[in-house]
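Lab notebook, bench 4. Still working through the backlog of constructs that have no structural model yet. Next entry is a single chain of 225 residues. Request: give me the structure tokens for it.
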Amino acid sequence: MQNTLISRIYVWQLPVRFYHWINAACVVILATTGYFIGWPLALQTSGEASFSYWFGTIRFIHFVTAFVFFFNFVYRIYWGFVGNKYSDWRNFILIKGDKWKEIRDVLAVDILQARMKPLESAGHNALAGLTYFISFLAFLFQCITGFGMYAAMSNAWLPHLFAWIVPLMGGDFAVRQWHHLMMWFFIIFSMIHMYLVFYHDYVEGRGVTSSMVGGWKFIERERKV
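Model written out:
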């Protein structure tokens, strides 16, 4: 005879949880302000044009948030080398052959609904790790292209480290188009991410949402009695 044992495991350390929520806020702010920078609203006003600085404020918020986003991302890379096994950088790179099998199993459970029994993974499963690795590359691309464009209007040392990307990609217009196009990657990624969080939290009851608040997750294990 078997019954289910619920194990409570401390998975996400405080720096990882801080990174997650700061990164989520930055993505929302950057995507919103970036959208208006790409398609600015034509607000009608009877006042003096110099008194209406709303677009300049949007750009300022975008630039400040970009700096927060960048240093938060750098810190997460650092924590991938000093954190616990669940935040280790190896979880995001498929260096073992069994990871590809796990990806197929995750697709069968989470996406295709071909299997009902959830996988026993306390941290990131292989598919999540691969997806986050791709998102990290997208983060890096946005940082390089964003600061590369900002270098033309800034005297700060950090943006000028990436000024080389503008001539490499064919000019400011091309960089701006790619930078703006990548914004939609984050929007689509966020939608899929929220669906999977809802699935694992509500359907499987594994405490995924609360784990990014308190750090604890719940894992079901079979035991014989």
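Notes after review: The CA atoms of residues 157 and 177 lie 24 Å apart. The mean pLDDT is 81. Flag for follow-up if needed.
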